[in-house]
Amino acid sequence: MAPDDRAPTDRHKVVVEHLFKVFGGDAEETIRRAQAGEAKDRIYAETHSVAAVADISFSVDLGEIFVVMGLSGSGKSTLIRCLNRLIEPTRGRILLDGEDVLAMDAGALRRLRAHKLSMVFQHFALFPHKTVAENVEFGLKVRGMGAAERRDKALRALAQVGLEAYADVPPDNLSGGMQQRVGLARGLAVDPDIMLMDEPFSALDPLIRRDMQDELLALQSQLHMTILFITHDLHEALRIGDRIAIMKDGRFVQTGTPEEIVARPADDYVAAFTRDVDRGRVFRMGRLSRPAATVTLGDAPGEARRRCDDAAQAGIHVVDDDGFPLGIVPRADLDVLEDGGGELRALMRRNYPAARADQELIELYGACARGLPIAVLDAAGRLQGCVDPLRIFALLAGDAAAGMPACRSETAACEAAKEP
Amino acid sequence: MADRLSDFYTLPLDDWIEVVVKEWLVPNFRPAFQALQWPIDQLLGWLEDGLLWLPYPVFVAMVPLIAWRVAGTRVAIFALSAVLLLDLLGIWQETMITLSMIITAVAFCVMVGVPLGILAARSDRFAGLIRPVLDIMQTIPPFVYLVPIVMLFGVGIVPGVIATIIFALPPMIRLTNLGIRQVQSELVEAGLAFGASRRQLLFEIQIPLALRTIMAGLNQTLMLSLSMVVIAALIGAGGLGLTVFTGLGRLDIGRASLGGIGIVLLAILLDRITQALGEGGQAGRGSTKRSFRQLLFKGGRQHGTEDDS
């Protein structure tokens, strides 16, 4: 993947530039070969060293969930460990809030880990000899916080994940899902700026996993942390990620929003993953929304018919002076009236299909069945745009052009529309 | 016809060693080794005086009580019988001397062995260096190093303790090293990820989680030092070993057996108690603080029921 082309700004919490991690052998030679684009297998066969992370660049914005998705051996766990230097990168630059992590000495690194970063592990990594509360307190204890204060913070963090009743129980007594909640609470207790999550839900049952994903999203909507999330499950990535990077053999194959990944897979590798994705759950109404043709009650039916035909819509929305929708008039009904005869009010149906921009398509199949354009409303309830039901089905059938904006700036616009 | 090299030439290694030890090591380093003796002498004297000063009834009450708290009812009953029997056999004083020797030797083994074990766990290089040394310590017969020990330290109970330390130290180092290396790497990562320093990592995570293995090492060290009791008597250490040794010298089978019985009783008692200590660290599964608290106030019940089942 090309280095991130977005201009660096204050919003960038994490910036990674041309990161390499080579295990074994001659690092320089391996990096040179990796830069020349040689395949991982060939490099290994000839040099007996592996570029687990090969020339990776990305940035994560404040409050964003950035998901790295890859199969086992793709280097994703190595990558996340490079960020807090549990694994020492071979080359490259890592900036957290503009600070160069690789230039830090041991003391500065420890302070960074204790104050700014926290981590959640795949197999929970709870300390079996400590109680749940003592586990959650760990990061604070390491900082040297007093016993009463850290207990207090730990209980608050446990309350956030709904486990305050289990504070004094050894973690082994809890179920897997509960243990990972403790892991999450341990991460939250230190009030991290940046949360590193290494396949946190992979070891859980599918139902529990879904609950945990929901819980993470709910927490994120309150806390607005910056999260780097690793997973091998594309569905999880699509559900959670604001942006997703697909990783293979130490490189990012594609980076983009969930919709971009599904609608326009960069190559066959990504396409193989996205093939069985339920598009109805990935795409949201905002993606398909376009400006709606509208009339007011004062307009003549003939005017309504003309505007409706211009927009090629199966119906036209009637709005009041402030832009709030009042109802819809189907195109077919407009033919009944002769020019100037009768009023729109008589034809208008007050029961019209409507949706919010952030709703998933799967929630709107019923609304599509009406055959009328679906009104897309903003947070206040004003008409923001409308969606033709046929375009929904075209998108579900895999027609990327149906819903895909052409370039990144439009993506940003769509994202803005998604979150009013 | 000569068919062996030794018919022409024998390597005089024995002479060399003798020269090195007698001409160089002893005259030059004797004071240093004597200084090494001092802390052992202090602890030993203090323990011996203390144990012999304590009135016998205190022992009859205390030892079974400790056994009960730590290891349960069965061991407590055994402890009571053992304490009574040792006195009835008339070897109480010897037992106390041996006990103070054992405790001193084990205390120094822990003081030296645990830090070395931690060092070995942290550095593969140090582990590689210390391994052959430990192999030699474990395989060389103690009789071989009794002579240089006598030359450097003289005879008496302190040299006996030093010989015991050399003999009993390896498992302490090995099992400390093993215990710390066996701590799950993800737990160590978690500690580091939250900003723990190496010292915090050691005391908060590695040692508590390795405690069970370390306690197994302590148990092994204890058993090995008990098996050195008689050999240490050869160079003037007193106690039960001396009883066995004099019995052997006079072909007094009864006296030798008394010493033997004393050693066995002491060994079983100490073994059961230290083993229960090690398992307590694991079975508690709470914080180490709590398991020690448990051990002091309510541990007896728990382990008692386990033993009875």
TrEMBL record, chain A:
Question: Which SMART domains does this one have?
Answer: AAA (SM00382)
* Subcellular location(s) of the protein: Cell inner membrane
- Specify the enzyme's EC class, one word: translocase
Q: Which family does it belong to?
A: Belongs to the ABC transporter superfamily.
Record keywords, A-Z: ATP-binding, Cell inner membrane, Cell membrane, Membrane, Nucleotide-binding, Transport
Whom does it interact with, and what assembly results? The complex is probably composed of two ATP-binding proteins, two transmembrane proteins and a solute-binding protein.
Protein's name in the database: Quaternary amine transport ATP-binding protein
Reactions performed catalytically: a quaternary ammonium(out) + ATP + H2O = a quaternary ammonium(in) + ADP + phosphate + H(+)
**What Gene3D superfamilies does this protein map onto?**
P-loop containing nucleotide triphosphate hydrolases
List the Pfam families: ABC_tran
Can you provide one Gene Ontology molecular function annotated for this UniProt record? ATP binding
- Domain of life the protein comes from: Bacteria
Please report the record's description of how this protein sits within the membrane.
Answer: Peripheral membrane protein
- Domain (ABC transporter) spans 37-274
| Recorded GO CC terms | plasma membrane
The record ties this protein, via InterPro entries, to: AAA+_ATPase, ABC_osmolyte_uptake_ATP-bind, ABC_transporter-like_ATP-bd, ABC_transporter-like_CS, CBS_dom_sf, Gly-betaine_transp_ATP-bd, P-loop_NTPase
> Which SUPFAM superfamilies does the entry link to?
CBS-domain pair (SSF54631), P-loop containing nucleoside triphosphate hydrolases (SSF52540)
Cite the EC number.
7.6.2.9
Q: Name any Gene Ontology BP term.
A: amino acid transport
UniProtKB/TrEMBL annotation, chain B:
Indicate the segments forming the ABC transmembrane type-1 domain, all copies.
95-274
Q: Which GO terms describe its cellular component?
A: ATP-binding cassette (ABC) transporter complex
Which keywords label this protein? Cell membrane, Membrane, Transmembrane, Transmembrane helix, Transport
State where the protein is found. Answer: Cell membrane
UniProt topology in membrane: Multi-pass membrane protein
Q: Which Pfam families match?
A: BPD_transp_1 (PF00528)
Q: Which terms does the UniProt entry file under GO BP?
A: choline transport; glycine betaine transport
TM spans, by residue? Answer: 75-93, 99-121, 142-169, 222-246, 253-270
Superkingdom of origin organism: Bacteria
Family annotation (InterPro entries): MetI-like, MetI-like_sf
Citing just one GO molecular function, the answer is: amine transmembrane transporter activity
Question: Per the record's keyword annotation, is Transmembrane included, yes or no?
Answer: yes
Tell me its family.
Belongs to the binding-protein-dependent transport system permease family.
User: What name does UniProt use for this protein?
Assistant: Glycine betaine/proline transport system permease protein
